[in-house]
Amino acid sequence: MEEKMMIIDPHVHMTARTTDDYEAMAEAGVVAVIEPSFWLGQPRTQVGSFQDYYSSLVGWEPFRASQFGIKHYCTIGLNSKEANNEALAEQVMELLPLYLHKENVVAIGEIGYDDQTPAEDKYFRWQLELAKELNLPVQVHTPHRDKRSGTIRSMEVCLEHGLDPSMVVIDHNNEETVKEVLDRGFLAAFTIYPKTKMGNERMVEVVRKFGSNGIIVDSSADWGVSDPLAVPKTASLMLKRGIAREDVVKTCYQNALDIFGMNGKMKESDWLNPEGINQTKLFNDNSVLRGQQPKVDTDKIV
Ligand SMILES: [Zn+2]
């Protein structure tokens, strides 16, 4: 067995996952995750729900990840689906600047189109302006319906607003969209789904065909049918199928670090010199232990 590779999953909704997932991810080599803000499966009805959600992405969830030895970062934004509730969306837009400066926020995201409605368009553009103003990378969710036209439209709107394509990750690509995304200088992320859409067998062939420049693998694991180990599993399948190790490192680690590390908040030293797991720590008087014996990396604690 080869030496364990460091993995970053740059799109995973850990709030919806269990502590078993964190343990399995750490065991599989995941050193850092990025959690995009998204919808919750059921529409929110009040701005306070967004506020508490964003607060958990910059507070409780990074703490929870740290208890299992994983660094947690997030992207903050108004998702496309809930942009359609305009009265609420207006209030959410006022909240965003309060969170974009927090210490683990690495980009604006995930934003973009769902049904490609006028309201989605309006808030997508507004948030692109915000990204430009704050010099933040952008994580774009592309629609699952009308994938190709929605992807092209997302890029065109980014360019129209003067964004540098090398600061924008276009997510949920497939074989039909990847070439156009790379040709235009954007980063192309792929979400690996366990059963449908983009599977890891197909991902191997994408990297074989297009190489590793600008390509990023993620799991988008959330409350739906999804696999939080999709990135490490794809990495090991790539190695098994003869993809060069340096290409696996780029697509499953380095490319994500390069773009999401741009604003200086996410750095390799964050996990190369870890504080160590210390489960005796508390967050606002709460722990993740539920009475279990705390695990402490005594060698790392000074
Ligand atoms: Zn997502």
Automatic annotation (TrEMBL):
Reply yes or no: does the keyword Magnesium apply.
no
Q: At the top level of its lineage, which domain of life is listed?
A: Bacteria
Hydrolase among keywords: yes
Alphabetical list of SUPFAM superfamilies matching this protein? Metallo-dependent hydrolases
Keywords noted in UniProt = Hydrolase, Metal-binding
Q: Which GO terms describe its molecular function?
A: hydrolase activity, acting on ester bonds; metal ion binding
Extract the Pfam families matched here: TatD_DNase
Q: Which residues form a coiled coil?
A: none
Report the sequence similarity comment from the record: Belongs to the metallo-dependent hydrolases superfamily.
Q: Which PANTHER family match?
A: HYDROLASE TATD
What's the protein here called? Answer: Hydrolase TatD
